[in-house]
Every structure is written in C-alpha cells, then in structure tokens.
Specification:
Layout (H helix, E strand, L loop, with lengths): L8 H11 L4 H15 L8 H18 L7 E9 L2 E15 L5 E11 L7 E5 L8 H8 L2 E3 L14 E3 L9 E6 L7 E2 L3 H7 L3 H18 L7 E6 L1 H17 L5 E5 L16 H17 L5 H21 L4 H15 L3 H6 L6 H7 L6 E3 L7 E3 L13 H21 L13 H6 L3 H6 L2 H10 L4 E7 L7 H9 L10 E6 L9 H16 L2
C-alpha cells in the first residue's frame, strides 16, 4: 500500500498532520491506549515480580506457538505472450537470529522460480510499515493477479486469482518477503524486544538484508544477478537495503525498482516558506482532473510539470509582493484542477490534500482516496469538520487480498498453518519507532549505492494521481542528484493511476516494459 502497497502508515500520518485527513491507524493507536488507562489505578507489582512474570509469560508465549510448517512447493503454469511459463511456487520461512545466535523471529516468503540458466532473482518488499508483500505479489508483478484497488471495487467481491499479463516472471525469478508482524511472519520475543529488534528503522533494514542474503545462500543463488523492488515504505527500505547489502554483507544488487516510494520526506518541510510542498501536490491533483475529463496524456502532464516548476513556484515565492502574478496563478490553478474558484482563491492556490479529497466529490457525498483521488467511497460523516472515515482505497483492499493470499498459501500451495494472516497490520504501525532516520529518508543511501557501483541502475516509478507519495517529489529529488556516469542510471517514470498504478492494465504493461528494458542492460 501500498501505502499501499504496500502501505505507508507513516506517509499518511505525515499527510494527516498537514491536511487533517483522518486515518484508521490512529484510531487503532488510540484504542490501544485504553487498557493501559484502565490499569492506571492498580498498584504496580514489585520489580522482581514483574521481571519474573514477564519471563514466564515470554516462555509461555513461545511454547504456545506451534512450529511453522516445512517449506511447501507446487508446480504451476501460465500463458504469457503466446508461450507457456512453467514455474514452481515455494512458501517457506527463514529464521532471524540475534547477535548471540538465538532465534528471535521467523520470516515467511513466497517464491516463484523457473528452470533456466543465468536467471536473475528479484526480491520484493512492501511498506506500511505493517504491510505484507501481497500487494506487489497479487497486484503488480507476481504470476497471479487479483483485481483490487480501482474505482467501484468492493471488499465483498470474489477474491479470484487470474494469470497476470504484467508479471515479471518471464525475465526474473521472484521472492516476496513479509517482514516480521506481516503476513505469517512472526516474532518469537516479547513485545518490548520485538519493537527493539524489528520495529525500528535500522534493525528493520539489517534483518531484511540478512534474509535476502540467507535466501541466496540456501538456494545456491549467491552468484545470480540480483534486483530489489520496494513499494511505498518499501521504497524507503530499498536504497537502505541495497547499500547495506553492498557495504556490509558483500552482496551487490544489479538494479533497484522503487514503486511509489516514501523516499525523501524532508522535501515537504517548511510549507509556509517553501513552494515545494504545494509543487508536489498540484500535479497529481491536476492529473486526477485530467483523467476525469479524459485528457490525461504524457504531453499534458509535461505541461503541468513545466508550469509547476516555473510560474507556479515563482508566484508562491513572490507572495503578496506581486499581486498580479498571484491572481494569475490562482486563476490558472482553478482551470488546471477544475475546483471551485472560491475554494482555490481562499486556499491561495495552495491545495491541501485533505481539503481537496473532501471537496472534489462533495456534491456526490463521497471522499477521494489519498492514494488515488479518483477512487472514492461514500462519506459516512459528511458534516464533520474533518474526515473521520477510513481511506476509500484501504477500506476495499484488505479483505480480498487477505482471502486470496490465505487460500493460495494454505490450499493451492498446501502450506498449512493455523495463524492469522496480516495483509496490513495496524499493530506494527502502532509499535513502529522510525526516529530521526525515518525523517531523513533514504536519498543519502541511494546516492551512496549509485556512486559505489557504476553499473547499478534505479527506476523510480509513480502513478500520476498519488497524493500519498507524489511523483513530483521524486522528480525534484533526482534532479538535485549529481550525474554519476550515465545520466539515465537513475530515472523517474510516471504512469496513469495512483499509489497502486499497476492495478491499471495499461500502466502495468508499461511498467513491465520499462523494467524489462532495465534488466536487459545487465
């Protein structure tokens, strides 16, 4: 989610602070506080008792967890571009150990592999933090596809899997990794230790990098060409995992694909003085309007980007020192977005995400999604001063993806497990401690990884309609990076759609073509 895709709790949290968009994750955080409040009047137990109780509880919890099943495999096939792909699906697990060698967690993965010499392997992670990899798996690049994430989809629609014409399996093996707390992956230590070992920025990068290393060694693939794809917060993970593997574990990625990445959060800082926050959101808002008017084209968006980087930014910087430029800008923004002229005027041409998502479909009694504002749902609280409902896209996504994945793993593949599957875990989001490293983003690691390996190639892919991780942020970020050899080694690609633009068949096909071209250069 997304955010989604993986899904980006932290990106939306930041958007919520700036735009007052309500998000269900924060409801989960609030509710989780009530039990602690209810216990406030109870006399605390002596330290020794608390320590003993915690130790016993941890031991009991670990004993209560049944062992994960052994790896399971199934042979499948699909038709793609007139040929038959025969492949093996493996659902399995890898242990996570602390510095003393004690097993502290188990990471579950789903792998799709084919026979063939010199096939590359691609590792995939989603975001959140708290999202499993099912969104990239069934939504984007796996051999099976689930139709979700588009306008009109319902959570009660049949969770039917079909062959995916946009799969990357034709040119790379695929390994989808579910971080601890997502999917069926699990911690084997207490909540406090889980937060310390798994739910913060640096440990997250380190253990996921080690999982990639361990999979390569276990499967005799250490010499294969290697790629990484990360979506949303997975796009934050991508450069950091790449650089950690490269500099610490001695494993070099050949290429990286960042899909709707949470890459450079600091670019939106200081919205009162800098035009950049508004430069990031005006293009996706305009793209959504152009799509509704059936006028969305690459040339139209090139004109939008040019206006945003030029007259729009200049007018914002000049402010009231140039009233004529401000008035012209407000009029042009009104025409670009199709919004009510008074709404644009009162906002000073600075369209806040939350206000826009309520305003654009207000007459229909609907809300737009922060992930794709043309994906809507009815607003159950239309007269509330702020949005109280869950995001429209998230509201339709979790049920079908969970149903499809659980059925695929337990029935189709036969990996039988008696446990809950977390497609999107609000518990992980509640416990996550990003710290300063999260706020700094991953541009530093992206630059360092590209500088260290003159053959590394990076694709940053965005949907035009995405307001959670706007494409303009990546354009502005990459334009400030030094050119290190071939200027096309780090490139930004944009497609029709939102955060999960790959749910559009045409965008999925375009992404597949662009990525295949990158792989062919190695």
């Amino acid at each position: 989610m997304m955010y989604v895709g993986g899904m980006n709790f932290i990106q939306v949290a930041r958007s919520c602070r700036r735009t007052s968009v309500a998000f269900l994750a924060f409801c989960a955080m609030t509710i989780s506080c009530f039990p602690a409040m209810a216990q406030a009047d109870k006399k605390p137990a002596p330290a020794a008792e608390k320590s003993s109780a915690a130790t016993n509880k941890t031991a009991a919890d670990k004993l209560a967890l049944p062992p994960l099943p052994p790896d399971a495999h199934v042979q499948q096939s699909m038709q793609l571009n007139g040929k038959t792909l025969h492949y093996t699906v493996t659902v399995g697990s890898l242990p996570v150990r602390d510095k003393d060698g004690k097993e502290t967690g188990e990471v579950v993965y789903t792998a799709y592999t084919m026979e063939g010499k010199d096939r590359p392997v691609t590792f995939a992670v989603n975001g959140g933090p708290g999202a499993s990899s099912v969104y990239l798996n069934f939504g984007a690049i796996g051999p099976k596809h689930l139709n979700v994430g588009n306008e009109g989809d319902s959570p009660s629609d049949p969770a039917t899997l079909t062959d995916n014409p946009g799969t990357w399996l034709d040119f790379t093996d695929l390994v989808f990794i579910d971080p601890i707390g997502t999917g069926f992956s699990r911690s084997l230590v207490s909540e406090a230790e889980t937060k310390k070992q798994f739910y913060s920025t640096t440990p997250d990068i380190e253990y996921l990098s080690r999982v990639i290393y361990d999979w390569l060694v276990r499967n005799d693939r250490i010499t294969s060409r290697k790629y990484l794809v990360g979506e949303s917060y997975g796009g934050f993970r991508g450069p950091r995992i790449t650089y950690y593997l490269q500099s610490q574990l001695g494993v070099a990625m050949n290429g990286v694909v960042l899909i709707s990445p949470y890459l450079n959060p600091t670019i939106e800082d200081n919205g009162d003085l800098s035009p950049i926050p508004w430069m990031m959101t005006l293009p996706p808002i305009t793209a959504a309007h152009l799509e509704r008017e059936h006028q969305l084209t690459p040339q139209a968006m090139a004109d939008v980007i040019a206006y945003t980087r030029g007259p729009y930014a200049t007018a914002l910087i000049e402010g009231h020192s140039n009233p004529a430029a401000t008035q012209a800008m407000i009029q042009h923004v009104t025409e670009m977005t199709g919004l009510d002229p008074e709404f644009v005027k009162r906002s000073g041409g600075r369209i806040e995400t939350g206000a826009y998502l309520r305003e654009v479909f207000r007459e229909q009694g609907k809300l737009g999604s922060v992930y794709d504002s043309n994906v809507t749902s009815f607003d159950p609280f239309p007269y509330a001063p702020e949005q109280r409902a869950n995001d429209p896209l998230l509201a339709t996504l979790i049920a079908p993806t969970t149903t499809a994945m659980v059925n695929f793993v337990t029935v189709t593949v036969g990996w039988k497990i008696d446990a809950r599957y977390n497609a999107l875990s609000y518990e992980v989001g509640r416990l996550w401690d990003g710290g300063d490293a999260l706020r700094r983003g991953s541009v530093t690691q992206l630059r360092e990884a590209v500088a260290a390996d003159p053959k590394l190639r990076v694709i940053i892919a965005h949907g035009w309609n995405d307001l959670s991780c706007p494409f303009m942020g990546s354009i502005l970020t990459v334009s400030q990076m030094p050119i290190m050899g071939d200027p096309t080694r780090v490139s930004v690609h944009e497609y029709p759609g939102g955060h999960m633009f790959y749910t559009r068949p045409s965008s999925s096909a375009s992404l597949q073509k662009d990525v295949m071209d990158m792989y062919s250069k190695h």
